[in-house]
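Worked problem 6 (solution included).
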Amino acid sequence: SYYNEYKSYLRAEGSMSYKKIIDNAAENLKTTKGKVALGATVATISGLGLYYYLSSGSEGVKEAPKSSEGGKEDSLPPSKNNANAPQPSSETPQSPTFVKELAPREKADKKKAEGNNYFKKSQYAEALQCYEAAISLYPENNPIEKSHCYQNMAAVSERQGNIADVVEYCNKALLLNKKYIKALHRRANAYQKQEEYTKSIKDWTALCLIEGPERSYKAGYMEASDGVLKAYGQKKAKEIFATRAPQFPSLTVVRTAFDSIHMRDFATDETEESLANDADKMYPRIISLISSNDFFGAYDAIVEALKLSPKKFKPQLDCLDGIFSWIKTDYGHAIKCFDAVVTNSSSYLRIKIQALIHRGEVYQAMGRREKAFMDYNSAVGLDEDHPDPYLHRAQFFLSCEKLPEAVADLNIAIKLDEDFASPWQQLVYAKYQMSRVLNPALLHEVYKMLDDMLVRFPKVADVCALYGQVLQDQKEFVRAEEFFKRASNVAPSNVTYKGHLATLKMMAENNYDGALELLEEANQQDPKCDFVLETLGMIYIQKQKYKEALDCFEKVLQLTKSEAEAAHYSALAIGIKSQWEVCDEYDVKPINLSDVQGMGNMMIPQ
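Solution. The predicted structure is:
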């Protein structure tokens, strides 16, 4: 308190000399007692001495400047004889308090902390204001702190349900802090809510590649990414099937489809000469073309014959037209053809069965499983001694992973026709899957069945290929290669077997260059083999040839037979594209081929 009094006199005009101030302080000391007085005097001396030193410079002791009133004596500090003089304080006097000006960053930190407190209290408007103020206060050389504030603003907007603002604030945060995990995570979720799946997938991909597999798995990024990929794939598949023009797949696929049909149901003893109708006259030649594997020639003849209004063979031609339409994924026309056969009272029983079976195939490809199952059951009901309905219903069960039910139907199909190779192959596949998931002891039975099938069907290449796949899955690579080569020798036009050999080279030898050479050769031989294109795309990924990989999967998309397949390949394609962009933008490493699911998995026989 003495210090404050003396300080005011020092600043006044006409104030006393420094020496007189000290004398007055000593006089006051005599009238006080104990430590309180001593403390006051020490504070007075030290405070004044410092103040004086700071105000006088280096020229020694000076008198304080005079006041504007000419230096009146009543400006002296009060003495003990002055009635109005303040009395000494009973409290310990304090040193002078100087308020420190906060630095810009400290001000910004304070505002940010205030924003955090408002956020906790759900006072979102106030929180946004504080974060905005903090961003303006942070110096330009503090981009990380600014990015944190933008991310916090995104969190506020998320609570408010303003998804567009979430994206905007995350964008600003990521411009300042490229690999900011929180901002990437929040933006990925926001894009997903907006159904901006392509952008969301890219952000999830960035999170997974930046954080690495283990941390991404624990954080849930992989699971979230998988969900968005599926949503994108389903949406894209519907667009593809709604807009693409029907086209025939690989000749290998067409041949495989007809291998699963008992063509004896379509056979006729009639000749062109014995038939009067011009359209009917074409029918025997059509069956001959199919038997000689001239499938595309047969299809052109079917279309032409139907234009000529056949009479006797109208149901057969409608059914064959439907089968070809199913193969080239023209599902609307295929169902129309099969409906015409099923409702035609003049249709032969076995032609009706074929129509029901293949209408079920169409429904299954369209994802309408209940209707598919009804058609398979109806076909079985029409003729319980026909093997084809059991075969196709078994394939339906296999797609649903109902292995015991599939095995039961396949055993019936084989009993009805032991010389029909297709149900034998399906049965081996089903029992092998059961040996993996239910009963390992069945593996011995699978090998025995395969050995018997080699004797029973020596000219069926798919039997050798199936044997090779089982051996490959059991890591018996040398023997597997032998059977794939045997299959290729039996049917050199079927490039699928070269695809299997290429996969084997990757798994057994880690020989990607050798595999690539085989696949490129197979692709030149048959540019529409989806299995070859898919495997080729996988190798291009491994070699970081993303443009070539995308080209492969875009071609596969145009060949898919169902929306489920289209969804799978659409997701795969966008995943590749996202990885390509992320690796380039964020300077991170891509995934390894060994991390890609599906490589080396067994194919379900057709």
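Discussion: The mean pLDDT is 84.
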